[in-house]
Amino acid sequence: MFIETILKGKRILVTGGGSGLGKEMASEYARLGAHVFICGRRESVLNDTVEEITAAGGIAKAHVCDIRAAGAVDEMIDKIWLDGGALTGLVNNAAGNFISPTKDLSTNGFDAISNIVFKGSFYVTHACGKRWIEEKTKASVISILTTWVWNGGPYTVPSAMSKAGINIMTKSLAAEWGKYGIRLNAISPGPFPTKGAWDRLNPDQGIDEDLGNSSIPMGRNGCMSELRNLATFLMADGCEYLTGQNIAIDGAAHLASGGNFYQSLDSLTDEDWGGIKEMIKASNEVDKSNRSN
Ligand code: HXC
Question: How far is the CA of 34 from the centre of ligand 1 (A)?
Answer without folding.
Answer: 32
